[in-house]
Specification:
The protein has 449 residues and is of the alpha+beta class.
């Protein structure tokens, strides 16, 4: 039933500029997040949150189990996807008719979990060691569900770190000179579809590549038995001999930037001399290709150098990439430069999902928050990867949030039916149906008996 305060229709308001306009407040009958229903359907088609129910341990007893573990997880993830990145928003969301429908179970006829219930769920239940481990692995299982519906022909991994500014005496916070702030320093691995394969939260003062084995090796192991071409890219912070050997042993082609040094500069000395004649008005690019073995390497490896002369600039720009790709130097440099898409994914996560919102006191609780943000991010990206209508093909995650999720909705309840009336300001009914059809096409084919 509707919340009595939210359903009140008394005390309507009239506006002076047009006396025909009358305002009524219907609280729990109205929602600003009608588009979440599409993502709930995506969740149902792929069976995403049902996976979590089989891996997360529920230590609650008695009245503490008012809402199911899966329902609470849905409220955490869908709330973040809609832009509510703090459990303080849960008291409002508990009365929202669309959120109640998304959570399911008891929430549909009563209300979803309150702020205190969500706080205990995220900082106590999920923060337990075994649940943190299961939560960190949940993105992998979700991505496997998507790949089962649309199998990839190759896999391309990008690894990068980022910054999550902190405020106050939070566990693990530290000054990072590169970012110039007190922060955490999370590490991410994305694939070519923008899916966040795995992430971890680290103290703010660690090296960019610190702990790369714990993040990358589970992802590498997952694709080990699949018949796929495998690629990997990373910046100079990940130019680590053990990382090269791991990738080579697993059959990965890689392109990793190298920091310049005197030996590398000497290898391309002829390319560093300013070309004779009047400088052209376009960028002049020259490439070097040679074998190089650093003192810490077990063998020589191929290095590609790129030297650029830009109009109006006195000095050249030089970059080096270590690789085992057999392609031409210009192709390899172009391949490496596409690594910038990982930075765009991180930017989307910060802007749309606000995964820098890690305000708990303890490190374990903030790790949980990061993983919940990661699940919300992946849920949004999964829809981007569906066969969406052409007018939505270039929508970013932020656009999906502001134009698709933020659809006004009015809920009308009858004895045997629930009707949700959606506004058509940004997304028409026809477009909504096309999106729904694209979601249903993601359903994995039945397994032959």
């Amino acid at each position: 039933m509707d919340h009595p305060e939210g359903a009140s229709e008394t005390g309507d308001i009239r506006l002076g500029f047009d006396r025909r306009v009358r305002l009524e407040f219907h609280g729990s009958k109205i929602s600003s997040d009608g588009g979440l229903l599409l993502f709930r359907e995506l969740d149902e088609v792929l069976g995403l949150h049902d996976i979590a129910g089989g891996f997360l341990r529920d230590p609650r007893t008695g009245h503490n189990r008012l809402h199911s573990l899966v329902g609470l997880l849905r409220q955490s993830v869908f709330g973040r996807l809609a832009g509510y990145d703090d459990v303080n928003d849960a008291d409002r969301l508990a009365l929202d008719p669309v959120m109640r429908q998304v959570v399911g179970g008891r929430a549909v006829d009563a209300k979803a979990a309150s702020a205190s219930q969500m706080g205990r769920f995220e900082t106590e239940v999920l923060a337990a060691a075994d649940n943190r481990t299961a939560l960190a692995d949940l993105s992998r299982q979700w991505i496997d569900k998507v790949h089962a519906a649309v199998p990839p022909r190759w896999i391309k991994l990008d690894m990068d770190s980022s910054v999550s500014p902190t405020h106050g005496a939070q566990e693990g916070t530290a000054w990072n000179g590169h970012f110039g702030c007190m922060c955490y320093h999370p590490l991410f691995v994305f694939n070519q579809f923008g899916h966040l394969e795995r992430c971890t939260l680290r103290p703010g003062n660690v090296h960019n590549a610190d702990g790369w084995e714990e993040v990358l090796k589970p992802v590498v192991a997952r694709y080990a038995d699949r018949q796929l071409m495998r690629f990997f890219r990373a910046n100079a912070a990940f130019a680590i001999p053990d990382l090269y050997k791991t990738l080579e042993a697993e059959g990965y082609f890689y392109a990793i930037r190298l920091r310049a040094n005197r030996v590398l500069q000497g290898k391309v000395a002829p390319l560093l001399k300013r070309p004779v004649g009047r400088p052209p008005k376009h960028v002049r690019r020259l490439y070097g290709d040679f074998e190089y073995q650093a003192a810490s390497w077990d063998k020589p490896r191929r290095v590609i150098a790129k030297v650029e002369w830009h109009p109006g600039e006195l000095f050249r720009r030089v970059g080096f990439v270590v690789t085992n790709l057999p392609m031409d130097p210009d192709w390899i440099i172009h391949f490496y430069n596409q690594r910038g898409t990982a930075e765009q994914h991180i930017k989307e996560g910060k802007q749309a999902i606000n995964w820098t919102r890690l305000s708990c006191k303890g490190m374990a609780q903030n790790e949980v928050r990061l993983q919940l943000h990661a699940l919300a991010y992946n849920l949004g990206v999964f829809l981007q990867g569906a066969d969406l209508p052409e007018e939505m093909a270039d929508w970013s995650l932020t656009s999906l949030q502001t134009r698709l999720i933020k659809i006004g909705a009015r809920v009308v309840r009858h004895a045997r039916a629930i009707t949700i009336q959606l506004a058509e300001t940004a997304v028409s009914g026809a477009l909504f149906r096309h999106i729904l059809a694209a979601i249903h096409r993601l359903r994995a084919p039945p397994v032959p008996t």
